[in-house]
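Review form for a predicted model. The reviewer records the input and the model, then writes brief findings.
Reviewer: anonymous (R2)
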Amino acid sequence: MQTAGNATTFFSDVIPDKFVPEILDLVVAAWERMPKLDQRQFEPRITALLKLACVEEYDEKYRTQGPPFFVVPENQIADPVTGKEVARTDLDIHIRSLHIPKQRPYFTFEAKRLNIPGGKRVRSNATEYVGDSGMMCFITVRYAPVFCGMLGYVMNSNTTTARNAVATAIHRRRRRLRLRLPKKLAPSSQKPQDARHAETHHSSGGREFTMHHVFLSRRP
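Model under review:
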């Protein structure tokens, strides 16, 4: 069980980030294994399918070596006083070889659909992506992993417009998101040549951290 914490409980200053590129690669490779999605498919079911695909990719990739981490879907976050569920993360990654205090995840992804077709218009959903149930979950430390990221499921397959809408929404909410330089959605330092990846930099409670963004396009 994961519990909400204080911003000072981030451990990225003492726990290595060497697994982050591998985790990003795993998610993208797993997405490519996914079955064709209906444009109306809801985010929890997409994430459930992605988790299954992650397990398949993981089993194949690490068949001949010791697996370094494991994937957990929809981890419950409970109020530490009442035990009542207050939230659920979408996808958690735990490292087998590292002791992380309070059994916090090494890496947590929050997922949101983007560019959702409906009738005669497409809803960008970028406001929700950057909002209280999206990026803000990490800023307020509602989720408190060591490393964090957002998954954008691009439902109409137009990754460029989805990414631009998210960039605009991030700019409009830049103060609440506590952005630090370059104070915008920037190319990924982990995957600089891949437009599916991006990152933002934040400060919260005296800590500075990077949020990784992965835009995953539904196959038409």
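Findings: The longest helix spans residues 43-61.
Further findings: The chain has one domain: 2-217.
Recommendation: see findings above.
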